[in-house]
């Protein structure tokens, strides 16, 4: 089953479930999205389904509902442009034209503040679990749509731009599968070590 998306001039994907987050701001003058950052998230950790991710991004999460929320998420203001759920369903929280708050302190080959020039995509998942085929299908189609709208020239994991601080999307994320699905050249994956022993 093939999936196709389009990003409109306002930075929204009409086919996504739109759940606007208040956690965004304008990109700095002249900044355009050139980097796609892939993350994983699950709330509570390692539990899938439910509405906690959306609630976190919309500042409506009840931090009394789980000890992890209480200890880690109280007062936290974060967002990503997109979340891809386990069934491949796509939700959008912030216009791609705006700066979402997904990467935190980060460095892309010497360039800091990656939120300024990136689009953040969260896969519902964890560092201990394989992602679903439906998630790769949606991700591949979304990356293609983003590349059609913006001068995207690289993809990275959160762990690549915040090493030592972040581990997502984790060891189960298949970068080569994403590369195959998107038919993007090696140069788009600057952190990927390409095997010379195919
Ligand atoms: Zn992350």
UniProtKB/TrEMBL annotation:
CDD domains: PGRP
SMART domains in alphabetical order: Ami_2 (SM00644)
Location(s), subcellular: Cytoplasm
Coiled coil: none
Catalytically driven reaction(s): Hydrolyzes the link between N-acetylmuramoyl residues and L-amino acid residues in certain cell-wall glycopeptides
Domain of life the protein comes from: Bacteria
GO process terms (BP): cell wall organization; peptidoglycan catabolic process; peptidoglycan turnover
N-acetylmuramoyl-L-alanine amidase domain boundaries: 21-170
E.C. code: 3.5.1.28
Family classification: Belongs to the N-acetylmuramoyl-L-alanine amidase 2 family.
Protein name: 1,6-anhydro-N-acetylmuramyl-L-alanine amidase AmpD
Organism listed in the record: Paraburkholderia fynbosensis
Lineage: Bacteria, Pseudomonadati, Pseudomonadota, Betaproteobacteria, Burkholderiales
Gene of this entry: ampD
């Amino acid at each position: 089953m093939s999936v196709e998306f389009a990003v409109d001039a306002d930075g929204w994907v009409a086919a996504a479930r739109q759940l606007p987050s208040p956690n965004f701001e304008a990109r700095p003058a002249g900044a355009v999205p050139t980097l796609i950052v892939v993350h994983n998230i699950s709330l509570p950790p390692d539990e899938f389904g439910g509405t906690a991710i959306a609630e976190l991004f919309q500042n409506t999460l009840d931090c009394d509902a789980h000890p992890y929320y209480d200890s880690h998420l109280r007062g936290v203001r974060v967002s990503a442009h997109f979340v891809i759920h386990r069934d491949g369903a796509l939700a959008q929280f912030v216009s791609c034209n705006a700066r979402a708050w997904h990467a935190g302190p980060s460095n892309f080959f010497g360039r800091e503040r990656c939120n300024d020039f990136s689009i953040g995509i969260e896969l519902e998942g964890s560092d201990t679990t394989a992602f679903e085929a439906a998630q790769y299908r949606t991700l591949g189609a979304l990356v293609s749509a983003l590349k059609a709208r913006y001068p995207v020239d690289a993809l990275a994991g959160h762990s690549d731009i915040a090493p030592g601080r972040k581990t997502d999307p984790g060891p189960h994320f298949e970068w080569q599968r994403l590369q195959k699905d998107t038919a993007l050249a090696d140069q788009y994956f600057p952190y990927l070590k390409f095997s010379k022993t195919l």
